[in-house]
Amino acid sequence: MPDFRLPDLGEGLTEGEIVTWLVAVGDQVSIDQPVVEVETAKAVVEVPCPFEGVVRARFGEPGEKLAVGSVLLSVGLAAGEEPTPAPSAETGSGNVLIGYGTTDSPRRRRANRRGPGRGAPPQTTPAVPTQPAPARTASAQPVAVGPAQVVESGPVRPSGVAPAVISPLVRRMARENGLALDTIAGSGPGGVIRRVDVERELAARSSAPAAGRRIPLKGLRGVVAAKLATSRREIPEATVWVDVDATDFLTARAALPGVSLLALLARFTVLGLTKFPELNSRVEGDEIAVLDEIHLGFAAQTDRGLVVPVVRDAHTLTTSGLAAAITDLATSARDGKIAPAALTGGTFTVNNYGVFGVDGSAAIINHPEAAILGIGRIIDRPWVVDGQLAVRKVTQLTLAFDHRVCDGGTAGGFLRFVADCVQSPITAMADL
């Protein structure tokens, strides 16, 4: 009654954990039939049995770890059945696992048992023998070693023959990385594909130069990339948005020389932060620091990439003073003359992404701030005014906020306040 032992699955691992038994005691198993799922440090694989017969005993339960070489199954004969030779270098399963290599395919082996003339033509895919092979002629060079090692490459796989792999893990590794096995030259005996062959193909793919140009993530671009990555990694953000009638907003802007749409939106943002100060904050350790000063950042596109200049103490400035500060900082940024200190220390950011022709955006919060407000393009849309359908100038306001510093009620309240200011700017300005 042969014992089937846990093979080395080609990973150089020392143990595997039983996930699921695929057979029960008393079941008839055939050569190459998967009998158990085993999880290694690399993957979950189905392990095929190299013996044929009836399962007499199983060793190990799901969740139990077994060392490589431990007995998995004991396989015996059914009543009245003649013994079937165990896999060897002459007759075997055809399923190549380290320690269970064979030289013949199961199709040929079964054909030989049925008798001549009825089987499929012999396969030409020798695998890994389990014992040292006898000396061969000079024309054949493969050398076999013990059950945990394979050395020397064999002949190239003949054309039209399905590729053989050294273990299910190697087959899965190729599949998950999008490699076709029939394009890989195997270095094992008879062209058997080993793990090193798949790794060689992956290394060649990764080292191949990609078409196009490369832009180093360094300098200003590198700093921006690092901050955005930190924001995504550390801030649990949420986004709320609202459509707004901006017809009067455009009228108010036209009546204020030197005041841009962004500056007017910045003014309403400062007013909103004085009413909802939770959004003018940051998380420091296990505390929320609500800040007294409003240092308002605004996104500015330059030839060197996106930068966020900061208007210090924006809450102390008039509308015209805030507009002048934004203009000066934006000009310095685009000319590449802005001081590094003017790009740090913000407590809240506004962004006019409408200049790029988009309606909305789930913007990334400028870490370590707690929120960012954006405005989309202003376009003609149907809008109901006093119960009548009219064509109005409509825009979308979007607020992304750190859900740790406030809930949706606060964020929604702030956004609604700013939206009301955009919709009725003259009223909002009159209250200043």
UniProtKB/TrEMBL annotation:
Residues 1-76 form the Lipoyl-binding domain. It is an enzyme of class 2 (transferase). Residues 120-142 have a biased composition (Low complexity). Residues 165-202 form the Peripheral subunit-binding (PSBD) domain. Residues 107-116 have a biased composition (Basic residues). It holds the Pfam family 2-oxoacid_dh. GO terms for molecular function: acetyltransferase activity; lipoic acid binding. The keyword Transferase applies. Its cofactor is (R)-lipoate. GO terms for cellular component: cytoplasm. Its EC number is 2.3.1.-. SUPFAM superfamilies: CoA-dependent acyltransferases, Peripheral subunit-binding domain of 2-oxo acid dehydrogenase complex, Single hybrid motif. Belongs to the 2-oxoacid dehydrogenase family. This is Dihydrolipoamide acetyltransferase component of pyruvate dehydrogenase complex. It comes from Saccharothrix espanaensis (strain ATCC 51144 / DSM 44229 / JCM 9112 / NBRC 15066 / NRRL 15764).
